[in-house]
Each structure stands twice: as C-alpha cells, then as structure tokens.
Jg4016 protein (Pararge aegeria aegeria), 382 residues
Amino acid sequence: MSYQDEYVGSFPKDFSYGPFEQNGENDTASLQEDHKPRILLMGLRRSGKSSIQKVVFHKMSPNETLFLESTNKIVKDDINNSSFVQFQIWDFPGQIDFFDSTFDSDTIFGGCGALVFVIDAQDDYQDALEKLQLTVTKAYRVNSNIKFEVFIHKVDGLNDDYKMESQRDIHHRATEDLQEAGLDHVHLSFHLTSIYDHSIFEAFSKVVQKLIPQLPTLENLLNILISNSGIEKAFLFDVVSKIYIATDSSPVDMQSYELCCDMIDVVIDISCIYGMVDETEVTTTFNSQSSSLIKLNNGTVLYLREVNKFLALVCILREENFQKQGVIDYNFLCFRDAITQVFELRNKAQNAAKDQSDLDDLPNGARESPDNAIENLQAQIP
Ligand SMILES: Nc1nc2c(ncn2[C@@H]2O[C@H](COP(=O)(O)OP(=O)(O)OP(=O)(O)O)[C@@H](O)[C@H]2O)c(=O)[nH]1
C-alpha cells in the first residue's frame, strides 16, 4: 500500500524534510498529483484534524494522538491505496490566516473536492462557527463545486442528549450564519465524529464517496448482487482505511458497519500472522485467495471476498440464505468482473484527461502549482 506523507513547503526551515527537498523530485510529479481530488482539513487549533488523518489513513491508535504536535505547516498526504480511492488530504494548521493577502485561495480552493471543517464539540464552539462561516464564504466564491462537510468532533466525551443538542445548535447557527452572508443555497453536511469509535470512518466514507463519480454504478452493481443472492447488506471496503466506498441502497446502520470493520481487522490480523510467503519472500497477506466466513450466534453470517488488491466485499446475510453459497460465489465473480470493467473505463478516462492537460500545459510551461501557493502561505505562519 502506498501512503505517502508530503510535508510541503519550507517553513520552518528545520522541518523541511519533504520529498521535494529530500530526493530532488521536481514539480512534474506534483502537477500529476494535482489531477487527484483534494480534501482539505480545516478548523481551529487542537480541534483534532491531524488525529483524524492519522487514525483513518495511517492506522495510528487513538491514544497515540495525545502526543501529536501541533501542525505548523500544511501537510499534504497522498492516498493512493486503490484505483477508486485516490485523493490528497491537505491538513492545515489551525492558526493559519486564510484571509491574509499571501493566501492564494484560487489555487488552494480551486482544485478542492471537499472541505472538511472540524469543530471541537467539547470546547466552546463560537469561534469555530465564525471561522466556518468565513472559510465557507471564501471557498465557495472560488469554487462552487466544493462539498462542505462539518465534523462535530470529539463527541465521545458527550452524553447522547448533549450530543444531539450540540448538533442541532451547530447546524442551526451555521446555517443562520450562511444565510446572513447571502449563501443560503450552500449545503453543509454535518457528522458527529470521534476517533475513539467507528464514527470517524463512517463520516470519512461519506466524504470520499461524494468524490467518486462512479458511485451510482457501484451502488447499482451492489443492489443487483444482493437482490440475486439473498444478501441483506453489502459494503465495498477499502481494506487499509476501512472506509467503505460504496454500499447498496438500503440504509446503513452503524452496528452492521462496525461488524464489517471488525471482520476486516480479523482477516488482516490472521493474514499477517499466517499469510503465505511467495518466492520474493514478500508476505502476501491480502490476495485473490482471501475470503472469510464468520457465523454469528444470532443466525447471521458475515462473508468477505477479495475484489482486488485493495478492495473487499463484505456481506451480511441470514444463515439459511448462505446454504446457496454456490450462487453467491458465482454472482460475486460476475460482480468482480463488472467492477474491473468500471476500473478500466475509469483509468482510460483519467489517462485521456491527463494527456490532454499535459498538452494544455506545454505552451505556458510555468503553470503555478498549488505547492508554490502553499510555500507563499507557509512564510506567514508564525
Ligand atoms: N476525546 C477526543 N479527543 C480527540 C479526538 N480527536 C482528537 N483528539 C485530541 O485532540 C488533541 C488535538 O488533536 P490534533 O489532531 O493535534 O489537533 P489539530 O486540529 O491537528 O491541531 P493543530 O495542528 O494545532 O491545528 C489531541 O490531544 C487528540 O488526542 C476525539 O475524537 N476525541
């Protein structure tokens, strides 16, 4: 799996250890990366932005985030772990002033797919709401296609009543603020999140799904699969991050999602311990042979099948429906073929788009990369 942290820019100097400085990569690579959708993580200091990124995409345990240092520069993180889940996450320092003249909002917000604004629900959130309004206003003016996602975060410390009350209050005040700014048509999505349970993975799944243009096709394929196989619920998981990139159209209940996540953990753990070693001495932990079946004591079966190196299908079904496993397996193979075709089409379209934009770039040569814009911005962070 290739996860790559890129520490962008050159301030403060003793932190300049990004790949561009380290191995002299030029900006061509970064321009190619720019074709990927970008998710910006913003919010006040200590709201939990870096923790979210580390827990969801780098397998950091929630307790370890207690020792994370404050982010003092924009951290760019490439998420390349599957052909469908390809994007960049830019983690912004809480103290950054987006409205400073050196902040190149056109470049930063221009290529942005989603803006995740993190609000610490355990703290007084008045300042956070003000910053949210400013950020949304600024970003929307540059790029009206951005999906705005508000994470009401750290809700693990709140009881259920207070959780709901905070969500209502934040929703109400944020929408009112936007109306005052003349942006009542801008849609904000709200999610209650915590790194101490699965809510952060669920919320991020929803953010990522909005960036997958093939989502309706994937959902359709899953609907066809479950209706022909007696399956109750099916998730298409990105195995490493445990975010689901698609599910069938029946409602998702948190417990089912948690069960499926736990199953992935079990499969990965067992594979790591007992995984086969191939000729190259590389442990092939998750491969085309990977599958798993767990029978629960309530008559439910969890069934996992590998779709490709990065994706797994996890299904929940009644035990009596699993008696026709042959049908399920056959339908799964058809489903896997269809997914492969979607991948191929998508890759073709992406390559064509890249070739076109490479051609477009040639005459001007010096297209400003977002990294340059970030470097300008780093210089103003105290
Ligand atoms: N209780 C609780 N604490 C959390 C949660 N997420 C993050 N934290 C804690 O919040 C503190 C700040 O987290 P960071 O991830 O460093 O916050 P940040 O927004 O990146 O901060 P800056 O880099 O200063 O902008 C850490 O001590 C985390 O352990 C959560 O879901 N629940």
User: Anything to note?
Assistant: Residues 3-211+365-378 form a domain with the Rossmann fold fold (CATH 3.40.50.300).
